[in-house]
Amino acid sequence: DIQMTQSPSSLSASVGDRVTITCRASQSTNNYLNWYQQKPGKAPKLLIYSASSLQSGVPSRFTGSGSGTDFTLTISSLQPEDFATYYCQQSYSAPHTFGQGTNLEIK
Amino acid sequence: EVQLVESGGGLIQPGGSLRLSCAASGFTVSSYYMSWVRQAPGKGLEWVSVIYTGGSTAFADSVKGRFIISRDNSKNTVYLQMNSLRAEDTAVYYCVRGVGPWGQGTLVTVSS
């Protein structure tokens, strides 16, 4: 099974900040790497798929990068609606494992 | 518009069985891989199971041998049959098309 390690587990930032969340896979995911945003009481929302492809309707301040085993989600300028929990997931091979999540909080 | 609507959750005693349904609209379930993902209260996301377009399936070790995933193409619906339920299966269960979108989830509570 591919293990996904996400860091940091929590992050405090201010509106306008640039933030980066990292995700490392225990073996190559062949770039089948997805990023999700989840707000309390809501279903997760797809932000990025295939490591760097922006899902339709997602603001361009969200950027995914990386390849192989190391991936990054960057939010270029935090907006109030971006404070949420973020998860990475590999969909290369079953089980399609998730990272443990990053809770992005307002500083 | 693509939509996924889960149903079938509820309170069930340990050892019991429950069948979750995921009714899809706006696309054909047999044309995408479909997954179930769960989230225990206050915890992160846990992948549970997948059914691929060809009909093959896979399960998390935590549910292997107890859960069955299937689909009914005529009803455009995906199912998760959950047997021998345990307290640790308590979670919101989400249905997902490929990598998205996700349904709104259905809560399963396993408790005596």
Write structural notes for this entry.
The complex is a heterodimer of chains A (107) and B (112). Chain A has 107 residues and is mainly beta. Chain A has no helices and ten strands. In chain A, a hairpin with a 3-residue loop joins strand 5 and strand 6. Chain A starts with a strand and ends with a strand. With 112 residues, chain B is mainly β. Chain B is 0% helix and 50% strand. Chain B has no helices and ten strands. In chain B, the strands form two sheets. Chain B has a six-stranded mixed β-sheet, with no helix packed on it. In chain B, a hairpin with a 5-residue loop joins strand 4 and strand 5. Chain B is globular. The model of chain B has no long low-confidence stretch (mean pLDDT 98). Chains A and B meet through strand 4 and strand 5 of A and strand 5 of B.
Biggest sheet character of chain B? 6 strands, mixed
Pattern of helices and strands of chain B = EEEEEEEEEE
Share of helical residues of chain A: under 10%
Shape type of chain B: globular
Approximate strand percentage of chain A: over 45%
What share of residues are in beta strands of chain B?
over 45%
Assembly of the depicted chains: heterodimer
Identify the strand order in the major beta sheet of chain A: 2-10-9-4-5-6
Please provide the count of β strands of chain B: 10
What Rg of chain B do the Cα atoms give? Answer: 13 Å
Question: What's the helix and strand layout?
Answer:
The complex is a heterodimer of chains A (107) and B (112).
Chain A: E1 4-7, E2 10-13, E3 19-25, E4 33-38, E5 45-49, E6 53-54, E7 62-67, E8 70-75, E9 85-90, E10 102-106
Parallel strand pairs in A: 2-10
Antiparallel strand pairs in A: 1-3, 3-8, 4-5, 4-9, 5-6, 7-8, 9-10
Chain B: E1 3-7, E2 10-12, E3 18-25, E4 34-39, E5 45-51, E6 57-59, E7 67-72, E8 77-82, E9 91-97, E10 106-110
Parallel strand pairs in B: 2-10
Antiparallel strand pairs in B: 1-3, 3-8, 4-5, 4-9, 5-6, 7-8, 9-10
Key terms:
heterodimer, A: 107 residues, mainly beta, four-stranded antiparallel β-sheet, 0% helix, B: 112 residues, six-stranded mixed β-sheet, 10 strands
